Amino acid sequence: MVKFYSRIFVLALLIIQVLTIEGKCQNSSYTFQINDQLDERIYAIDRLTFYEDASNELELDDILSSSISGKLKINSDFTKHQFSTENTYWVKVAIQKTPTSNKQWLLEFYDQTIDQITAYIPTEGGFRELKLGDQAPFSDRVFSHKNFQIPVANQTAGTDTYYFKIKSSQKADVRIAFRSYNRFIYYALNEYFLYGIFYGMILIISLYNGLIYLAIKEVKYLYYVFYLLSVGIFAACVDGIAFQYLWPNHPGWNQPASGLFSYLIVMFALLFSTHFLNLKRRFPSMHRSFQVILLVKTILFAAGIAFFPKLLEIQIYDIVPFFLILFSSVFVWIKGYSVARLFVVAYAILFLGVALKILVHTAIIPHSTVLYYSLHIAFLIEMLLLTLALGDRVKILKENRDRALLRSLRQAEANAKLKDKVNQELEMRVKERTQELDKKNQLLLEYNQQILEKDEEIKRMNALLDKDIWKLKSQIKENLQARITNKRMSYADFQKIFPDSSSCLRYLEQVKWENGFSCKACEHKKSSKSSKIFHRRCSRCGHIESATAGTIFHGIRLPIEKAFYLSYTVISEHDKLTLDELSKLLDLRINAISSFRVKVKLQLEMKGINHPEWEDIVLERSHELN
Q1: Running DSSP on this structure, what letter comes out for residue 373?
Q2: Mean pLDDT over residues 386-391, rounded?
Q3: Burial of residue 582 (number of CB atoms within 10 Å: 0-12, 13-18, 19+)
Q4: How many Å apart are CA 494 and CA 561, to the nearest integer?
C-alpha cells in the first residue's frame, strides 16, 4: 500500500512537470513568426496588442478604422486582476507566414471559462467570423477540445492579422498559445491522459468508500463519497471537461454548475469533517460555527442562482470554511485525538491549494501553470491522505479496541481468580456454617421437644381455665339476670350493666341467637358473620339480619342504651320517675320518652303479658323465636 501511494506521489510530480512545460516566448514581438524550430509560443494579455472597449458597441469595421486601430497597443502593466467584466476586449494577433514550413499551426485560448470569443480570421476577401466561448454549443468548435483553437492558414507568404472580440462575465485569463499541430496533439494527449488518471482515481476511491459505507453504514463514508464526486465534477467544470462530456449542448449550465458543485464541496467537506473529527462532542463551539458557515454558504448560493450570478464564482471568502476545518482538526489533534493526524496534513495541503487557486483566480498573484493546477494537485494529495486517514482511523480504533479487549481479558482473568478464591472461602464458610446449623438444629429439636411437653401442660391448664371461665360466665349471666330481674335498680346501676350502645347490641345478639340462628327469609339454620358488626348473614340465601331485627328497638331514633332504660322503667319497681324527671335524667324530649314507653306497653298488651319480665320487653316475639 505504501509503495502504491509513493508511485502516485511520483506520478503527481510528473503531472506538475508536464503541465509546467511552456514554450519559449519572443520578447515584446508583435508578430508570431512561423518557424519550425519553435513548436510553441505563449503570450499573456500584457504581451498582446489589445484595446478595451468600454462602450461595448464597436464592431470589426470600427477596429479596422484609423481612429481605433491606433489604440490597439501593448500594455505591459495590464493583469487579469484589471480585467473588467463590463467591457469588451479586442485582441490583435499578427502571424508572419512561412509557406515552406512542414507543419500545420493553430492559435489556442487557454481559459475555457471565457463566455464569448468572436474570432475574425483573415481570408482573401476580408474576414471570416468564428464564434467560440463557453456560451456556444461545444459542437461549434473546430477541434473537440476543452480549450478554444483557431487553425492558421500558411499556404502563401505574408502576414495575416487575426482579431478577437472577447467578452466574459468573470475575470478572464486572456492567454494565447501559437503552436504546431504536432505540439498540440502531444500536449492534448498528455493532458487528457493525466485528467483520466485524476478523475479515474476520484471514481475508484469514491467506489471504494461507497462499498465501505454499504458494509459498515457509517455516514462519514457517504459524506466523503459525495465530497469526492463534488470535487471531481467541480474540477471538470473548471477544466472544461464537464462541458465537453456531460452537457455539450447546454452551455447555459456552465456557470451554475460550477457554483453548484463548489457549494457542494463546502457542504460535504463540513459534514465529513464534523463526523470524522466528532466535533459535536470534542469541539462543540466549532460544530456550531460549521453550521453557521453552511447556512451562510447556502444563502450566498441561493442568491447567486436567483439574483447575483457573480456569487457563483470562486471568491476570496471561500477559503474560510477550509481554514476552519484545518483549525478544528489541529485543535482536536492537540487535544489527544490521534485519529486526526493525517486529516490535519490533508487539509493543510488542501487549504494551501485552495488559497493559491483563489489568489490566481482573483489575479492577486500572477498566473503560472503550477499555480493554475494547484487546486487539482491539492485535491489529489488530499484525496489520497484522507483515504489513508480513514484507514488510519480504523487502524487506531482497532488498536484501541484490541487494547481494551486485552485489558478486559486480563481483568476477566483476575476476576476469575478472585471468583475462585471467593468461592473456596465461601465453601469453607458454608461448611463451617452447616456444622454450626446442625448443632443448632439438634438444640432446636431438643427445645422443640421441651416446648411440646410444655404445650401439653398448657393445654391441660387451658382446659381447666375454660371450665372456670364457663362457670364464671354462667355466674355473671345469672348475676346479670338476677340484677335485671331485680326490678328495683336505679339508673346508675343500670348504666353499669349497659353503659353504651355496643353493650346493648351485644346483649341483644347473645339473647336473640343463644339458641341458634334461623333465617327469617328461608328458615335456614346456618349463618356467617356479615361485614357489619352485630349482623348475621344466611349461608343459603344471603339474607342479612341485624341484632335489633324483630325487637322493640329496631328502627328507633333514640340512643339504644337510653331506650333500654326506658323499657326497664316499664317493669321497674323502683321509685317511679315522672316524665319531666326522665327527660332531665336522659336528656330527651318528653314526647319521645312518652311515645316510646307507650309503644312498649302496647306491645306487651298485644302479647297479653300482664306481668312482663325483662326478656319479654327485649324480645317482643321471643316466644316465636324459641
Answers
A1: T
A2: 76
A3: buried
A4: 10
Place of cell 489513508: 388
Which 8-state DSSP code applies to residue 316?
G
Residue entry with cell 483549525: 327
Q: Which residue, among 571, 600, 575, 573, has the nearest Cα to 585 in the 3D structure?
A: 575
Inter-residue contact 98 to 33 (CB < 8 Å): yes
Count the helices and strands in the chain (H runs, E runs): 20, 14
**pLDDT tens digits for 91-149?**
999 999 888 888 899 999 988 888 899 999 998 888 899 999 888 888 888 888 888 99
DSSP 8-state class, residue 576: P
Selection from 323, 314, 322 nearest residue 361 by Cα: 314
Reading the block at residue 559, the C-alpha cell is: 340512643
H or E stretch covering 97: strand 88-97
Least confident of 21-35, 128-142, 233-247, 436-450: 21-35
Confidence band (pLDDT; 50, 70, 90) for 163? very high
**How far apart (Å, rounded) are the C-alpha atoms in residues 374 and 18?**
14
Q: In this structure, are strands 40-44 and 49-53 parallel, antiparallel, or unpaired?
A: unpaired
Tens digit of each residue's pLDDT (9 = 90 or more) over 68-102: 878 888 888 887 778 888 899 999 999 998 888 88
Dihedral sign computed on CA atoms, order 610, 614, 619, 624: negative
Question: Above 50 in pLDDT, residue 20?
Answer: no
- What does each C-alpha distance from 349 to 354, 369, 426, 456, 612 come to in angstroms? 9, 18, 65, 102, 125
Q: What is the pLDDT of residue 3?
A: 46
Residue 472 and residue 366: Cα distance in Å, rounded?
Answer: 130
Report the distance separating Cα 267 and Cα 273, nearest Å: 10
**CA–CA distance, 36 with 340 (Å, rounded to integer):** 55
Measured between its terminal Cα atoms, the distance across the chain in Å is: 114
Burial annotation 58-86 (CB, 10 A radius, 16+ → b, else e): beeeebeeeeeeeebebeeebbbeebeee
